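Q: Start with the shorter request: fold the first protein.
A: Done. Sequence, then structure:
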Amino acid sequence: MKKLNKVAMLVASATLALSAGSVFAQSNENNWLNVDGTTWRTGDGTLCWRNPFWTPATANPNCDGAVTPEGPVTQAQPQPQPGATSQRVSYSADTLFDFDKAVLKPAGKEVLDELVRRIGNVNLETVITVGHTDSTGPEAYNMKLSLRRAEAVKAYLVSKGVPANRIFVEGKGETQPVATNATREGRAQNRRVEIEVIGTVMR
C-alpha cells in the first residue's frame, strides 16, 4: 500500500510539473511568458515575473513598474505664474496742466491713456498719485495746487476704469524738488505728477 501511495505521489508531482510548464514554459531574456506569448504579470498587472536571466541592463521597460503607455507622453506645461510689480512714472505738470491750473489738457489725457493701456494686464493693488510744484508762489498755495492736480489725475484714471478705492492721492507742494528752483529748467522738472502702480502682472 505504501508503495502504491509513493507511486501516486510521483505521478501527481509529474502532473504538476507538466502543468506548470504549460503556463510559463517559455521565457525571454528577463521574464516568464504565458503560453500565448504575453509576459506573465502579477495580479494587478503592474509587475512582471522575472526569470533567472533577468538583469537590470536588459530589463523590460514595460515591467517592474506601471506599464509604459504606447506613444509619446505629453508633459504638462507649467502654468504661467503671476509676478509682483511696482512701477513708478513721472509726468511733467506742464504736459498735464496749464500753468497754475489743475484741469487736464488733451495732451495730458493722452499720456494717461497710455498709462492705462500699460497697466491693463496688472491686477492692481494700489495706485499712488503724488503732485509736486516748484517754489514759485506761497508754500501753502503750492501744497493745495499739487493736491488738486493729483486728484485730477485720479478722477481721470477712474473714468478710464481704474478702481477708485485703489487710488491714493497726495500733494507734496514744493517740499520734494528733484532739481534746483533757481533756473527755469530746474523749476520745470520740479513741476510734476508721480504715479506709482503696485500690483500683480497676469502673464
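Q: Next, the second protein, separately.
A: Sequence, then structure:
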Amino acid sequence: MSFKNEPISSSQSESDSTLEKGKAESPEASIHLERAPEEPQLSDAHREYLLARHGRLDLNPLPSMHPEDPLNWPQWKKNVQVLMVAFHSMIATFMAAGIVPAYEGFAEAYGTDIHKSAYLTSIQIAVLGVVPFFWNPIAARFGRRPVFVMSVFGAMLCNIGGAKCTSWATQITTRALTAVCISPPLGIGSGVITELFFNEERARKMGWWTLLLTLGVPSGPFFMGFVTKHIGFTWIFWIFAILNFVQLVVYIAFGAETLFPREEVMKGATLPKTGLIPRRIGSAPLSFSGIVAPFSLARYVDVVIPALSYAIIFCYANIVIVVEMPSVFGTRYNLDAQQVGLLFISIIIGSVIGEMSAAPLTSMFLQQYERWTGKRNPANRLWSSYVGFLTVIVGLLVWGIRIQQADNGVFNVTPLVGAAIASFGNQIITTALISFAVECHRERSSDVGVFINVFRQEIGFVGPFYFPYMFETFNFAGSAGLMCGLIVVFALAPIAVLQFVRTRAA
C-alpha cells in the first residue's frame, strides 16, 4: 500500500483519495490507514516559521505560514472557539429537553394532555436532525462565524415568542423554528474542531464537544425543574432567550472564523475578509447537491456503521432514561418538577466521568499500536468503545431490573446508579465512534458530523413513540434485556466486524 503526504481536495474524502491512488497497487487499497507523519518537503522560510510557532515539523495537517490559519492560533484562542461551539450544541439539546418538567403546565395552560405536550420536544428532536443539512453548505460558503451569530440571534427571537404563546399550536411552531435556528453546530461542530486542531489533539477536543452535546439532554430538565416549580414554565423561555443573548455577545466579542482556504493561501491567493456580515469564503456554490452531499458518505462503512451504532446507543443509554424519568419516578413516588429534575444529576455525573476516561483510553490504544507497527490505524480508536458497550449493557440491566423490583411506595436509588453507569458508557462510545469516523474522512469532517447527527436525532425521535408500548408489553426488566440484545446485534457486533476488517487490512 502506498502512503503519501499529498493534499486532498475539499470535495474528496481521504478514503476516496486512497482508493483512487491505490486501485492498481493492492487489493487493500480501499482501506484508509495512515503512517506516522513524515517530515514534508518545506521551504526554508516555511520551516523556520513552523519551528518558531510550533517548535516541530511533524505536524498533521501541515499549517500554512499565515497567522490567520486556525492551526497557527494560540491554544487559548482555539479552546475558546471549541467551547463556544460545544456550548452552542449543548444549548440545542438543552432547550429541547428543558421543557420536559413543564409538560403538566403546558397541558393545563393550553387545554391539552401531557402526551400531546411531549410533542413539543419531539418536534425539536426531528428538526435538529434534518436542518443541519441546509446549514452545512451555507457555512461552507460564507463561514462558520456568521452562521453561528445568525443562529443564536434567531433562536433568541423564537424563545421570546415562546414566552408569549397562549396556545399549543403557536408554541409548537416556535419550538420548531427555534430548532431550525439553533441547529448548525450539531452538524458542523466536528468540522470546526478539525479546522482548529492537529490530529493528535482532536480526540480530546472532540470529547469536549460530544460531552456538552450529551449533557444538554439531562441538564435541561435538571435546571428547568427548579424554574418550573418556583417561577412558572413561561420563564423557561425567557431564560432560553437570555442564554441565546449571552451567546450572541460572546460570538461577537470572541468568535473567529475557522474556515480557512489553506491550499489556496499556500499557493499565493489573498485571504478573503471575514466578519459578522457574510462574505464568500469557500469556493463551493450553493446548490441542492451541497445540501445532500453528506448522504454520499453512505457509501463508506467506516461512517455508516459508527453512525448507526452511536445512534442506537444514544437512544437506549440516554434518550430512553431521560424520557422515562418523569413517569418512572415522578408518578411512582409523587415527586414534583424540581425533585424529578434532581434525578438527572445521575446522568450528568456518569457522562462527565465517561468523558474524563474516554480520551486517555483512546490515546493509549493509538499510541501502543503506533509503537508496535510504526503507522497509525484509526480503527484502534474503536478499542475503547468496548469498555463503553460493556458498561452501557450493565447500566441498562441495573436500571431496568431495579425499577421492576422496586416497591412503588419506597424511593429506590439503585436505578439511578444504573443510569449513571449507562451514561458513562454512552460517553465513551460517543467519543470513540465520532473520532474514528471523522479521522477516516477528515477532509469532509462537517459532512460526517451532519450524517451522524441525522442518525442520532431521527432514531432518538422515533424512540419515545414506542417506548411506552415496549415497557407495557415486556415490563422494565424485559425491556432492558431487549434493548441490550439490540445493542449487541446492531451496534456492538458491526463495530467489532469493522475493526477486525480494518485491522487485518493494516
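Q: Describe the second briefly.
A: The first strand starts at residue 34 and ends at 35. The chain has one domain: 70-505.
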